[in-house]
């Protein structure tokens, strides 16, 4: 086989969710591109990796020491939304109805994957709550076992502060179907019912 | 938004079959990688693009002027299998029951996409058949409208040479289901029936 092609396929194959077949397709797409375009792609990998660090306040990815959201004085800095990952911030921002700031844990408690409390950005969250005038902490963790465990743990740590701690709602997604919903989702939806 | 991250997402987004969501996931995966790994990935793109050219005999991708298959004297150089794309050679080689050589057209006749005869590696195929002692040309083009048109056209060009021209069989795929087969596949399977 062609060594440099095999090598490129292997590199694509290392990315999450990219199997051998897709990796092959992508590698061939690179061969079909102009050398100029490939150079731009190649450089953008290095540039992104070198330029992007974690915001020293919230842990979000940022090109500056403090991220855009933490720097934005128009946002409500008394509400912190805790998320697992920077990707979740992008999703939340897309929804356009949250104006507070964030705190990125960079994972969730998952002993099976070797991730415990010390690997997560939790200590800085407690410091933020202790040092600033925070009114509410919203836990926006994925509603799975590890997410719930992490939420419970953070809830315990923050209990003694005079703040509201909330959790985003679990339930049937918009456009979803009661008939085909799983039992866990349905019971969460019932538990979390709100008066109309 | 973070400029160099947006840029990297755009680059992944340009690849075929990679939508905005997958591109975002891949870009974040890059940020999670070690800088050393990202450099290897970045270099492998440039290396593949710079090192790989087209075999001057068959048009297959190759790091040398003549590809491994055309150089291999253990293969039967009197049988040429015509394929649309280098990717098809990888698939054929995986099947491990073909020992001839190949010819890559780099596309198929498709006027709607602006690809006509002159854009394809057909002239060199005719030269190969004229200059060498060829016994058989197997047309292994995808069984769609453009593939069939291309096969018919090549068949016409090669008709006057004293060679066998064949076409790979169309029919129900192994493990497939007659009940759920489309009409075109079923009628091809019937047409191409063989005595047992």
UniProtKB/TrEMBL annotation, chains A, B:
<dbReference type="InterPro" id="IPR015967">
    <property type="entry name" value="Rcmb_RecR_Znf"/>
</dbReference>
<dbReference type="Pfam" id="PF21176">
    <property type="entry name" value="RecR_HhH"/>
</dbReference>
<dbReference type="Pfam" id="PF02132">
    <property type="entry name" value="RecR_ZnF"/>
</dbReference>
<dbReference type="GO" id="GO:0003677">
    <property type="term" value="F:DNA binding"/>
</dbReference>
<dbReference type="InterPro" id="IPR000093">
    <property type="entry name" value="DNA_Rcmb_RecR"/>
</dbReference>
<dbReference type="GO" id="GO:0006281">
    <property type="term" value="P:DNA repair"/>
</dbReference>
<dbReference type="Pfam" id="PF13662">
    <property type="entry name" value="Toprim_4"/>
</dbReference>
<feature type="zinc finger region" description="C4-type">
    <location>
        <begin position="55"/>
        <end position="70"/>
    </location>
</feature>
<keyword id="KW-0863">Zinc-finger</keyword>
<keyword id="KW-0227">DNA damage</keyword>
<dbReference type="GO" id="GO:0008270">
    <property type="term" value="F:zinc ion binding"/>
</dbReference>
<dbReference type="GO" id="GO:0006310">
    <property type="term" value="P:DNA recombination"/>
</dbReference>
<dbReference type="InterPro" id="IPR006171">
    <property type="entry name" value="TOPRIM_dom"/>
</dbReference>
<keyword id="KW-0234">DNA repair</keyword>
<dbReference type="InterPro" id="IPR023627">
    <property type="entry name" value="Rcmb_RecR"/>
</dbReference>
<comment type="similarity">
    <text>Belongs to the RecR family.</text>
</comment>
<protein>
    <recommendedName>
        <fullName>Recombination protein RecR</fullName>
    </recommendedName>
</protein>
<comment type="function">
    <text>May play a role in DNA repair. It seems to be involved in an RecBC-independent recombinational process of DNA repair. It may act with RecF and RecO.</text>
</comment>
<keyword id="KW-0862">Zinc</keyword>
<feature type="domain" description="Toprim">
    <location>
        <begin position="78"/>
        <end position="173"/>
    </location>
</feature>
<keyword id="KW-0479">Metal-binding</keyword>
<dbReference type="Pfam" id="PF21175">
    <property type="entry name" value="RecR_C"/>
</dbReference>
<dbReference type="InterPro" id="IPR034137">
    <property type="entry name" value="TOPRIM_RecR"/>
</dbReference>
<keyword id="KW-0233">DNA recombination</keyword>
